[in-house]
Specification:
Blueprint (H helix, E strand, L loop, with lengths): L6 E2 L4 H15 L9 H10 L10 E4 L5 E4 L6 H4 L6 H10 L5 E5 L5 H10 L4 E5 L3 H13 L6 E4 L2 E2 L4 E8 L17 E9 L1 H7 L7 E4 L5 H6 L2 H5 L5 E7 H7 L3 H10 L4 E5 L5 E3 L10 E7 L1 H6 L1 H4 L12
Length: 324
């Protein structure tokens, strides 16, 4: 892989300092509760610990991937040398292997897309969907700089329950990852039209015969995406599904997170797990209404669970299947 230009060195004072601060904060989580929030924010501003202090450039992550970063809150953990979402990241690295086919719906800048591409290797395929123009541009850059374009198909489109177009809202005071089909009751946003299709229609038109893993994070619109994937989800070999349940964003779009879970159950999914920060999973009952303020969940059918030592053993700790 050719060396990237403009790599932000790990030894820059600013990045090294905040890497140490973040690592210390993770080890001593309780200590920060002793310091007033206003004081912590003041210190961060004085010491350039806000996201707008992140320089535009390329980060070499600890796992070897190269990732473009810039002054957006979504990049702060990556800039500090941490995983973007540690629990789900560790889990997918252990669930996926060579030759797998993956759907990444709501790919954003490509954190998971680049992980998926490494895990499935040359024999696998990753279909990534990101409709927001600025995020799609970052996704393209990250796929190119990591030299995994041969196994990735990037699609600048939205997915839902119908075909057509949809307006997306990109908010001036929120990270790019919070873009939504809803205006979230806010007034400071820009609107972009995006082509809209369904997963079932996409798979049919591109002759995709099977999917092993399906990640969906679309800021509350997950149920519409799943409606449009009903044929896939009802199949006896349906994929493992990893998705975010967020009560606030779901309500803004018009759903309740429990409706998502009930739909998956109706499609034959009989195992549901919550992912913790270490990549472990805890079984969640399918049969009752759950308190789902904001959780990362995994749903699977019995056949997939039995075939996965990771889910069967309750997730991962310090082991994981590594891609070459």
């Amino acid at each position: 892989m050719p060396e990237a230009q403009g790599v932000i060195a790990e030894e820059t004072i600013h990045r090294r300092f905040w890497s140490y601060v973040q690592a210390a904060a993770m080890r001593h989580e309780g200590l920060k509760q002793c310091v007033p929030t206003s004081l912590r924010r003041l210190c961060r501003r004085i010491l350039a610990g806000e996201h707008d202090a992140i320089p535009e450039g390329v980060i070499r992550h600890k796992d070897g991937r190269l990732l473009f970063v810039g002054p957006d809150r979504i990049y702060w953990r990556i800039y500090c040398g941490l995983d973007f979402e540690p629990g789900p990241t560790k889990l997918v690295q252990s669930l996926l292997g060579k030759g797998d086919t993956v759907l990444d719906v709501g790919a954003n800048f490509g954190w998971y897309t680049t992980i998926f591409a490494r895990q499935v290797q040359n024999g696998g395929r990753v279909f990534a969907f990101e409709p927001v123009p600025a995020a799609f541009e970052q996704l393209q850059k990250n796929i190119q700089i990591n030299n995994v374009g041969d196994r990735c198909m990037l699609n600048q489109m939205a997915l839902g329950s119908t075909e057509g177009t949809v307006d997306l809202h990109v908010f001036e005071d929120l990270p790019l990852s919070h873009s939504s089909v809803s205006d979230l009751g806010r007034s400071s946003f820009k609107t972009f039209p995006a082509p809209l299709t369904t997963i079932d229609r996409f798979m049919e038109s591109h002759a995709v015969k099977r999917v092993d893993f399906f990640k969906c994070d679309v800021e509350g619109a997950e149920l519409a995406v799943f409606y449009g994937a009903a044929d896939l989800l009802r199949h006896k070999d349906a994929p493992i599904v990893m998705f975010e349940c967020n009560a606030e964003t779901s309500a803004a779009v018009g759903w309740n997170p429990n409706e998502v879970i009930r739909f998956l159950r109706d499609c034959g999914y009989d195992h549901l797990f919550e992912i913790d920060d270490s990549g472990g999973v805890a079984r969640v009952p399918f049969g009752s209404n759950l308190e789902l303020h904001e959780k990362n969940l995994v749903a699977a059918k019995s056949k997939r669970v039995l075939a996965s030592h990771v889910l069967a053993r309750g997730g991962v700790s310090d082991f994981g299947r590594q891609a070459n």
